[in-house]
Amino acid sequence: MVDVSLSSARTSPGRAIRSARPVSSNAQHGIAVRLTINRTAREAEVDTRTTLLDLLREHLHLTGTKKGCDHGQCGACTILMDGRRVLSCLSLAASHDGAEITTIEGLAQDGHLHPMQQAFVDHDGFQCGYCTPGQICSAIGMLEEWKAGWPSLVTMEQPERHPHLDIADLRERMAGNLCRCSAYPNITAAILDVAEHSA
User: Fold this and answer.
1) Which of 5, 36, 55, 188 meets the CB 3.0–4.6 Å disulfide criterion with 100?
2) With the C-alpha atoms ordered 143, 76, 103, 85, is the resulting torsion angle positive or negative?
3) Are 42 and 60 in contact (CB under 8 A)?
4) What's residue 3's pLDDT?
5) 41 - beta bridge partners?
């Protein structure tokens, strides 16, 4: 069993702690990991085999990020790391020392929901809600990719840039996030709403 010690201190957005150090405990595979999570500097001593998902859920008690398949196939564990969407179940915490992570708990600011969160509420983009945190984080990252001109299978077939996010392109880009309840029409409507207002 690995001892886990946590410390937190406020840090400015975008600034992450970038140093790592071995753990002095008797843990066979222990390492100290420092991350900026939801704009707060955090440090944990974890087994080198610990995934980001387990660090967030089991050690830091940020249970908004869900464990669905634990094989990178459902997208329920999607978080934002340094602004990009990442499957936390496939990412080792020790490999991302110093990274800046945003989970579903860190999206709302000053008592106001993130526009994507609000759109999911407005469009009823969930049923059981289990996949919703991953859907929302993935949608935020996907829109940034789309705005930056990252290609998808759809845009490679139709290379001309469209001023609006095409529904076929959206479906292709969000294909890694599954909804067991099949709330896809409302999820799509929520994402298109945010895309329309942020284009």
Assistant:
1) 36
2) negative
3) yes
4) 40
5) 9, 36
Range of the domain at 80: 7-106
Report pLDDT digits (tens) over 90-130: 999 999 999 999 999 999 999 999 999 999 999 999 999 99
Q: What is the pLDDT of residues 124-136, one digit of tens each?
A: 999 999 999 999 9
The answer on 170 and 81 residing in a single domain is: no
Task: Examine the pLDDT at 1 and tell me if it is beyond 70.
Answer: no
Helix (H), strand (E), coil (C) string for 67-129:
CCCCCCCCCCCEEEECCEEEEHHHCEHHHHCCCEEECHHHCCECCECCHHHHHHHHCCCCCCC
In this structure, are residues 195 and 146 in contact, taking their beta carbons and an 8 Å threshold? yes
User: Does 1 fall in a domain?
Assistant: no
The pTM of the full predicted model, rounded to 2 decimals, is 0.84
Looking at the fold, whether 84 and 131 belong to one and the same domain comes out as: no
Residues 13 and 97 in one domain: yes
pLDDT band, very low/low/confident/very high, at 27 (cuts 50, 70, 90): low
At 129, list the tokens. 């809600």
Q: Is 85 inside any structural domain?
A: yes
